[in-house]
Design a protein that fits this description.
This protein is an alpha/beta fold. It has 13 helices and 8 strands. Bound molecules: uridine-5'-diphosphate (UDP).
Length: about 240
C-alpha cells in the first residue's frame, strides 16, 4: 500500500516486508530502482517536479528519516515504520550473500567505495563484489558502460540526492542491474569513514541528533527539517496533501 506524504508516495512496509519486496525486484526481469527519501528530499521534491516524478515512479519508496514518519502521523496517514536506507541495504546484502549475487558500488570520494567493498565482502563472503567506482566522474555513459561490463545484480548509487535518483533513472537501465538503490552516504558508513549512530540513538529515532553531534556543520541543512512537520500540520488542517 502507498501513502502520499507531502506529494511523495511512500510504500508502507515493515523492514521485513521491504526486504522481501527488494528480493523480489532482484529476481524480476528488467531494471528497477528504489529510493529512500528523508525530509530533505520532500522539501527538494516540492520545488523540483522532475525529482518528485522520479520518487513517485520508483519501484520502492522507503521512509529513511524519522521526520517522514512524524509527518505521516501528523497527516493522519501513518506508515508501518521507518525503513532506513542502510538497514534495507544490509538486508539486500544478506540476500545477495545467500544467492551468490553480484554487487557494484558507485559513489563517494575516491577510494571509499573500494574500502566499503572490502568491508562488505568480509561480512558477506558469498556475494560477488563485481566492481566499484567513485562518485566524482564526468562521463556518465562510460561509467554506465563499465558497470554493465561487471554484470551486477544489485547496484548501490551513492551520489547524494537528487543527483543519485536522476542518475539511476537516466543511466540505470544501461547498467544492466536488476535493482539500483539511491543510498546517500551509506558507502561512507560501510567504509568506516563515518560511524553509524549507536543502537540506542537508532531506537529512539535520534540518529539525526547523533549525526549533528559528529558533524555540527550540518546544522544549516537540518534546521530546515522541522519545516516538513509544519507543512504536514498545514496539510492536515487544510485540504490535505
Ligand atoms: N557524492 C558523490 N558525488 C557527488 C556528490 C556527492 O559521490 O557528486 C557522495 C559524497 O561523497 C557522499 C554521498 O555522495 O558519500 C552523499 O552524502 P550525504 O551525506 O550528502 O548524503 P545523504 O545521505 O545526507 O543524502
Amino acid at each position: 500500500m502507498k501513502q502520499t506524504i507531502l506529494g511523495v508516495r511512500f510504500d508502507s512496509l515493515t523492514r521485513q516486508q521491504a526486504a522481501q519486496a527488494g528480493a523480489a525486484l532482484l529476481e524480476a526481469p528488467g531494471f528497477h530502482y528504489a529510493v529512500t527519501p528523508n525530509p530533505e528530499f520532500l522539501l527538494a521534491a516540492e520545488k523540483d517536479a522532475s525529482f518528485r516524478k522520479i520518487l513517485n515512479e520508483a519501484d520502492l519508496t522507503l521512509p529513511d528519516g524519522i521526520g517522514v514518519i512524524y509527518a505521516a502521523r501528523i497527516l493522519g496517514r501513518p506508515l508501518q515504520g521507518r525503513v532506513t536506507g542502510i538497514d534495507f541495504a544490509g538486508d539486500l546484502l544478506a540476500r545477495l550473500n545467500e544467492t551468490g549475487g553480484r554487487l557494484y558500488l558507485l559513489g563517494a570520494k575516491p577510494g571509499v567505495a573500494q574500502r566499503a567493498g572490502e568491508n562488505i565482502q568480509a561480512q558477506y563472503p558469498n556475494l560477488v563484489l563485481c566492481g566499484t567506482h567513485d562518485g566524482y566522474f564526468q562521463d556518465d555513459a562510460a561509467v554506465a558502460g563499465e558497470i554493465a561490463q561487471a554484470k551486477p545484480d544489485l547496484l548501490f548509487v551513492c551520489l547524494g540526492a537528487p543527483k543519485q535518483e536522476k542518475w539511476m533513472v537516466q543511466w540505470g537501465p544501461a547498467t544492466g542491474a536488476r535493482l539500483a538503490i539511491g543510498l546517500g552516504g551509506v558507502l561512507d558508513v560501510y567504509s568506516g569513514q563515518v560511524e553509524r549512530a549507536p543502537e540506542i540513538f537508532q531506537k529512539l529515532g535520534l540518529e539525526w541528533a547523533y549525526r549533528l553531534m559528529k558533524e555540527p556543520s550540518r546544522v544549516g541543512r537540518m534546521a530546515r527539517l522541522p519545516l516538513v512537520l509544519v507543512k504536514a500540520l498545514k496539510g492536515r488542517f487544510t485540504k490535505g496533501e
